[in-house]
Structures are given as C-alpha cells and as structure tokens.
Amino acid sequence: MTAGKKNPFKGRQSTAEIILWAVRWYLQFPISYRDLERMFADRGIQVDHTTLFRRIQAYAPELDKRVRPHLRMTNGSWRVDETYIRVKGKWVYLYRAVDATGQTIDFLLSPKRDAAAARRFFRKALGQPHTVNPRTITVDKNAAYPIAAKAMKRAGEFWRFAKLRQVKFLNNIVEQDHRRIKRLVRPGLGFKSFTTASRTISGYEVMAMIRKGQVVSAPANDMGAQNDLIAALFSAAA
C-alpha cells in the first residue's frame, strides 16, 4: 500500500511508531487524553495531553482518507439512522449507515436533522469506493428521509427502483452499532467545536471499520494485522 509522497511525520518530535500507537489506542478504546498521557508515562515517554489531542486531530482524518480505497465492498441493503453527539453543550446529529451484514457504509456529522442533511449524507455515502447504489434503504420514521430519497431518485442519483422502508425494528443493526461510537465519545464529556468532533469521529469510525474486518489484509480481531495495516498506510515501521 502506498501512502503518498508527503511524509506525514515530518517535523514531529516523536517517532512514527509512537504517534501511530497513540492514534490506534485513542480511537479504538474509551479513554481520555489524560488517560493516554498516563499510559505513555508508564512506558517512560513524556507527552502532554494537549499534544496528544493535536496529534489525534491531525491523524484521525488522515487515517480515514488513506483507508477508504482498501475497504471491502458493502452490499446494497442500507440501514440508515442518526444519533446525537454533544458539541459545545448542544446536540448535533451523526448520520450513520451500515449494510445488512453490519459493515459500515459511511457517516456524516451534521448540525441539522432535515432533508438537506439526509441528502448530503446519502451523496457522501454514494461517493465512496466501497459502496454501491442501494436496492433498499431502511430508515426510521423521520420524515426527512423520504423527501431526500425522492429528490435523489428524480435527479438520477439513486436507482429509480430503490425501495425506502420506514421499519424501525429492521434498523436494530445500525442502532446497536451506534453504541460503539457512544462508548468512545463518553470519556471526552463532549466536544469543544464542530471541527474537533468531526475529525475525532472520523477516526472512531474508520478504526471501527478496521476492527470489523472491512480491510481484506486485516481480519477482524487480528490486532497485529490491523497494526501492520495502519503502519503500511503511513509507510511507517509497525
């Protein structure tokens, strides 16, 4: 796997191995930046929690971008739902979709929960290399989804025979999957800005994809292979 010509670790005082270790641990386990600082101290490495925060903000979206081309194809049965995330003391909406097997299709953090936001999410999902135009889209009773889906059918963005199903119990698979993200968000006690939330959540989501085994070379629950994958994506020693 190639990681591009630009060295993402240029100018960093810590080694690539240490930086990626921090990124992996923070994005897959429910810990705070201060917890991570103490974990480093236990290994004899002094890194301030504010420095760790800056590194996660830099590398989480970069990991998301680099892993996308290597994801397995998802299927055409979409299960779509949104959950709530607190940002600056207010609730914003995290749109998420998985396929019928639980593989992550895509996600989008939005300040609003309306037809325009739903359409932005659908468009983002359709633009990914690991997705297909859906046969069925299962959603809850949110009236914004039918409006968005109809508009996209008229525009030729969705297959015209795609079926939108508003059946809540069929969406249990995505509602259960929300718990993974909620568990990771909790130690941070909310985000200070929308940008911070977006960057961090992109890291949570992509690490979840990797842990689910959505990359062929990194089977689910194979921590060694997953670590090697991330190192290869950044052209760093594992």
Automatic annotation (TrEMBL):
The keyword DNA-binding applies. Residues 65-186 form the Integrase catalytic domain. GO terms for molecular function: DNA binding. One of its GO terms (biological process) is transposition. It comes from the Bacteria. Keywords: DNA recombination, DNA-binding, Transposition. The keyword Nucleotidyltransferase does not apply. This is Transposase. It comes from Microvirga lotononidis.
